[in-house]
Amino acid sequence: MSPERGPVFLARRTYRRRRLSDGARLLPVLGGLLFCVPLLWQGGERAPGTAETMLYVFGLWAVLVAISGVISRHLRASDTEEGAADGEEG
User: Which comes out higher in pLDDT, residue 22 or 79?
Assistant: First the structure.
C-alpha cells in the first residue's frame, strides 16, 4: 500500500496570496508594454494627436497606480492576518 499523501491543493489564503504576489511582479512588465503602445500608432488622418496620446499615458499611469495600491493593500492585509494567526503583534 502507498503511504498517505498530504492535500494536493494549497489553502485558499495561501493560493490567493501567491497569485497577488505574481500580479505585483507582472504589473511593471504589463505597464511597460502598455506604455509602448503609442509608439505603434502610425501617422495619418485617424491617428491620435499629442493631446490624446498624453491622456492615454497619464490615464494608464493612474490606472497602474490604483491597481498597485489595491494589490499592496490586500497583500498587507494578508500579512497582518497571518501575524495575528501566529500570535505576533504588529
Answer: 22
Burial class (CB in 10 A: 0-12, 13-18, 19+), 38: middle
Residue linked to cell 509602448: 36
Kindly list the domain boundaries of the chain, sorted by start residue: 14-39+50-80
20 vs 47: CA distance, rounded Å: 36
Q: What are phi and psi of 65, to 5 degrees?
A: -65, -45
Residue (of 5, 23, 2, 21) closest to 13 by Cα position? 21
Q: Which residue has the higher pLDDT, 45 or 62?
A: 62
Asked if residue 32 has pLDDT above 80, the reply is: yes
Contact yes or no for 75/24 (Cβ under 8 A): yes
